[in-house]
Structure formats: C-alpha cells, structure tokens
Amino acid sequence: MAVTAVKSPYLRWLATALAGSETSCLDGAPGGENIVLGYATGYDVADVAIFVRSLRSHYKGPVALVVDNNPELRAFLFAHDIEAVDEPKVCGKGWLPNAVVSRFAGFDALLRERPWVRHAFLTDVRDVVFQGDPFVEPLERLEFFAECEKPLASHAFNMKYLRAVAGDCLAQVVADKACICVGTVMGQREDLMRFCRLILSLGAIPRSEIGGAFGADQATCNLAVHLGLLESTVKPNHSRVATLGLVERSQLKLDGVRIVNPDGTDSPVVHQYDRHADLAQTMWETWAPNYQPKVRRAPRDFRSRILRMYQSIRRRTVELR
C-alpha cells in the first residue's frame, strides 16, 4: 500500500517556525536574570499603557514586547526602559496561523536569542495589570494558572477546541481537569522553550488548519499539561495570577486601586480585569488617565462575516493526502 505524506498549511508553517530550533542549547548553564515577554502587535500606546506603567511600578528588570513599527509606541516603551522587539522571522510566507498560536514560535525564538535568561513570564498584554513583582514568589518548575475552579468540561469554548484539535476521546480524557489559561505562563527558559515547541507540535494533530486557529493554543496547552507531557505545576486561580474573566464581580473587592481576591489576598498579576467594567475604569483612571478607554469590537459588516465564514470552513476542511 502506497503511503503518502500528510499535507496541511499548518504543517508547512510549523516546519518554518521550528527550523533552527535544534541548534539551540537547552542544556547549557542557566542564565541569571528574569524577563517578562509579551506580544503587543496591532496595539498602540493606549492598549499597553496600563500593562507598562503598572509593571514598572513593581518590577525593574528586563521586559521585551513584540510590537509593530509604531514610532509613538516604541518611544513610549523606550521611556519606560522596555525593549521593543520586531516580530521574529519565524512565520514564513503564505498561510499563517492566528497570532495567539504563532506567538509561541516567537517566544521560542526570543528565548533562544537570550541565553542570559533564567526565568521568564510569558503573558498577554492588553488585559493584564500588575499589583506586585511577578517573580516575587520562588519558582521551581513550569507554572500554569487555572482560570476558575470549574473543570474544562464546564466550558464550551475550551471543549470545542479540545475536540477540534484532538478529537472527542482525548477531549474527554482531560475534561475533568483544571481549566488552564495559556495567557500567562512562567518557568525556566529551557522549560518554556520546550513548552512552546510542544504545544505547536500538538497543533499538528488535525489534518487541517485548525491547529493554527484562535483557541487552539488553549487546547494544546491543556493537553500538554494534563496528559503529563511536561513537568509542571498548575496553580489555582488567585495565586501568583488572578484571572477574572469567569469570576463573579460580587466575589471581588476593590481596595483603593488594588483588586482583592475572594479570600482577601491580592495577586501580583491580574488578568482579564477588563471583563468587569468598574475594575477596568479604575485601572484606566489609575494607570492611563491621559488615554481614552478603548472598546474593541469585531467588524459586523457583510464582507467581514463572509470572510469569517470562509476562514472557518477552510480551517475545518481536511486536505487531501
């Protein structure tokens, strides 16, 4: 029986994204510095001001953000001693995955170029505010953070992409596990590089473009952790990171400008604070009073709807062998 190679746009992109990764030294002497890494492509100063100013009020170490060629934004970052980085050349040409997926190829490349790093915090940018030094607590191995107390099975979005990436059976295997948010991850440089490559590789399971879709990053992260494919710790919500998107507002308190967790503690990093209008307003007034709050809405015109439908069908269409 003839055997032919599996083909998909995602696999072609992945080969380009991982090219050269075998030359990086994962077992060399560890560096000695921490770093915060984030992707801020498509953003302007108003989008990152809360992140930047709150972070710099608590943490003075290295920070690098991947940004577009926006002179005003780059000047703002320079003024706050933050490195503005061009997007690493890992994307190739033609079809590209969603940015939430491709950023992990970028994170791998950025860490590969910085052997002096010991620990790194890979984080979302637009909806993150800092209430302390993210590295204040000791770190032993990769840390992931649950976004709520309920398991994956209770979240339709996560289960949708788990099934799309890995099928019904594997999705059910991890359905009773913690719902991990891939938007904030912390660990040693070498462990994070392995993690980035692993979730990108897991995205190649389907014979379609779904591995590069929005939501696939969340699915592959949960698979990697809950199937025991890497050594890690899953921290509960409201620990080093508090993710508020699925937390009832009535469970949270606002003490001045500090967001207080249901147990009375406060976390150094708060993610998805903007899901609660009054918290978002306080953060804007505190950290970005000279900017207008921005509301992001997807275009709803006929052309954009047809484009989204086309992209959705294409992602789910299995290519011929």
Compose a concise summary of this entry.
The chain is an alpha/beta fold and 321 residues long.
Key phrases:
321 residues, single chain, 19% strand, 36% helix, alpha/beta, 12 strands, 9 helices, 7-stranded mixed sheet, 3-stranded mixed sheet
Describe the structure.
36% of the residues lie in helices and 19% in strands. The chain is an alpha/beta fold. The model has no long low-confidence stretch (mean pLDDT 88). A seven-stranded mixed beta sheet has the order 3-2-1-4-7-6-8. Strands 5-12-9 form a three-stranded mixed beta sheet. Strands 10-11 form a two-stranded antiparallel sheet. Helix 4 runs antiparallel to helix 6. It has helices at residues 9-18, 45-56, 71-79, 99-112, 156-173, 189-202, 216-226, 277-287, 302-316; strands at 33-39, 63-66, 83-85, 117-123, 128-130, 142-151, 178-188, 232-235, 241-243, 253-255, 258-260, 269-271. The radius of gyration is 20 Å and the shape is globular. The longest helix has 18 residues, at 156-173. The protein is built from nine helices and twelve strands.
What does the secondary structure layout of this molecule look like, with pairings?
Elements: H1 9-18, E1 33-39, H2 45-56, E2 63-66, H3 71-79, E3 83-85, H4 99-112, E4 117-123, E5 128-130, E6 142-151, H5 156-173, E7 178-188, H6 189-202, H7 216-226, E8 232-235, E9 241-243, E10 253-255, E11 258-260, E12 269-271, H8 277-287, H9 302-316
Parallel strand pairs: 1-2, 1-4, 2-3, 6-8, 9-12
Antiparallel strand pairs: 4-7, 5-12, 6-7, 10-11
Helix pairs in contact: 2-8, 4-6, 5-7, 6-7
